[in-house]
Task: inverse folding
């Protein structure tokens, strides 16, 4: 599966995430050793701290609202996801 940046879009609920809809089956094991499996139509989701998961299409499309292509929130942009990740890590450090 290709992971080109142009395929990603930014979505929001209470938090900003990046996600892309899967066009083929996809599976991976996360940093905690959990297996994730997705089918075509499901979404690969990346949270602000970089963790990835797979969300079923029905749930994802009911919860998330598309905002813009992910390029707007590129790592090179000071107002992009990299800045959001810094704010999120600062918040989690303060609550720890």
Result:
């Amino acid at each position: 599966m290709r992971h080109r940046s142009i395929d990603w879009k930014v979505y929001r609920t209470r938090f900003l995430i990046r996600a892309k809809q899967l066009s083929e089956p996809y599976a991976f094991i996360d940093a905690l050793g959990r297996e994730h499996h997705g089918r075509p139509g499901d979404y690969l989701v990346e949270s602000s701290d970089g963790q990835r998961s797979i969300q079923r299409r029905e749930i994802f499309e009911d919860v998330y609202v598309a905002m813009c292509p992910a390029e707007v929130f590129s790592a090179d942009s000071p107002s992009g996801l990299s800045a959001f990740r810094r704010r999120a890590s600062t918040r989690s450090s303060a609550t720890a």
